[in-house]
């Protein structure tokens, strides 16, 4: 079982792990013959079909290691063992700046320079001006000046190798066909509004079960490029609305039944309804929704399918 690759885009990889960290502390990573755009010089080998390797990885140490590599000259990652424990070894090459040390002759001149009782304020010595480039130091070792040097650093992140039987039951949630597909507004903007609405609802909570109910946001979308988010409590009702958004077209090659399947799809039938009746609505817990919107740091846009909420990040 082997895996190694050069990280092509360390910045994107860091933002991806940071976004996922808002949702969970542990993730399942699947490596196979299909190379991801994050890596290059990609090599994976195992005894399973498609050279598949399934890893359970703790996001906190992985994200910390990646953040330390954001200014690296190069970065690579490989699957190996350390003291018999499987680890992902992240190796980075970075440049370290060597600090300036004052030339010895200059230090001696400053320390032992003679001063008159009445200093001449109209003139400044060459040492006072700090004009080191124009000073010669005969019979002195060469002075040290700032310089860059490359350093290689390797960090290890412990992982768990999952057997195929352990991941066989992992799959996306089973939902009915969505009524509406819509490209959401910019996620950072949507996140700010969602957090504001959630805070408006919190003061009305007097018990835990009431709090969970009152902090639920109402999300609605229509097949006419419209999206709404709101909150309703005993004290207030507030709502924001976007228009002119995009409703992505379904790809017949990805739908069971092809062209006929698209014509019979729930989202197609939703467009046949009257505009004021074509809204699909769900309610979500405000704080959980805010964490999901944290993926905005990666792509900024998401396609949402509305019956339950299924989000698909779109890298811009």
Instruction: Give the overall shape.
Output: globular
Q: Please state the CA-atom Rg, rounded to the nearest Å.
A: 30 Å
Strand tally is: 14
Cα(first) to Cα(last) distance is 34 Å
Task: Count helical runs.
Answer: 10
Content of β-strand: 25-35%
Mean pLDDT: 77
Task: Write a structural description.
With 316 residues, the protein is of the alpha+beta class. The chain contains 10 helices and 14 strands. It has helices at 10-21, 59-67, 104-112, 126-129, 164-167, 187-201, 208-214, 258-263, 266-270, 286-292, and strands at 2-7, 26-31, 39-45, 53-58, 74-82, 85-98, 147-162, 180-183, 216-222, 226-232, 237-242, 280-285, 301-306, 309-314. The strands form 3 sheets. It has a 7-stranded antiparallel beta sheet with strand order 2-4-7-6-5-1-3. Strands 11-10-9-12 form a 4-stranded antiparallel beta sheet. A 3-stranded antiparallel beta sheet has the order 8-13-14. Helix 1 packs antiparallel against helix 2 (59-67) and helix 6 runs antiparallel to helix 10. The longest helix has 15 residues, at 187-201. The model is unreliable at 112-145 and 204-213 (pLDDT under 50).
